[in-house]
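ok trying again, last paste got cut off:
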Amino acid sequence: QRVQRFDRHIQRMTPITANIEAMTGVMPNLRGNMQNMQATITDVDINMQQMTNAMGGIAQQMHQMTGGMSVMRANVHQISGPMGAINPMLPN
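nice, full thing came through this time. structure:
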């Protein structure tokens, strides 16, 4: 009976041992892939920081441009008053 129990135990352990052996072969490749992923994620993070910095500069330039547009709009509004008074006198 002990021999049979030991034999069943060995039968259960055989596939477990084979699976562990297969995992042992896969793990070094998995580690390399994880390191590659980490390097790629680091590159993405750096690129995102650069893009964020660039967006800040673009936002500042857009603000400067729209500020200039508001000054132009105010100037056109000031000119349009006198032009409106002259307009009825101009020929068609």
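cool. Residues 2-86 form the longest helix (85 residues). The chain has one domain: 2-86.
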